[in-house]
Amino acid sequence: MTTDPLQRLIAIEEIKALKARYFRCVDTKDWAGLETVFAPDIVFDRTYSRSTRDPWTGDWSPPPPSPPWLVHGREAVMAMVRAAIEHLRTVHHGHMPEIDVIDESHATGIWAMSDELRAPDGTLLLAGRGHYHETYIRLADGWAIASSGIHRLEILRGPDPAATKGEQ
């Protein structure tokens, strides 16, 4: 961890702003803005995005895919996000960040999250709650998301579960 408390706090606030920009750009379909939040070599882990974990047994339902479902690189992540939500109304909220600044260029974070995905007519397709687990890297122009993955605690599916096949 960086030893300068002021630099640590500045990094935390910059990472909070980065994640806020992520949520806003996803929901407003600002693809150019969204692209700027990701490191060029980002890894997006979708392995657990369609499953929930029982907190008492540790079991996943349904079981996550094997091998892990990883999307590598900014271009591939952008294509995945667009394919999943471009034609859906979405609302993503991030809460209670736990950010650990490792050094001047690296940090980790866990964000409580909730999201809703709706068809263009407003029909609820999916509502989820859980946590984003992320790593961050400081690039020449600021912090970027280096890795991200969702671990869901709850998934509520609307009337057409097939419509959420691309959820992110």
UniProtKB/TrEMBL annotation:
InterPro entries per UniProt: NTF2-like_dom_sf (IPR032710), SnoaL-like (IPR037401)
Alphabetized SUPFAM superfamilies for the sequence: NTF2-like
Domain SnoaL-like per the UniProt entry, residue ranges: 7-147
One of the Pfam families matching this protein, by short name: SnoaL_4
Protein name: Nuclear transport factor 2 family protein
Species of the source: Sphingomonas chungangi
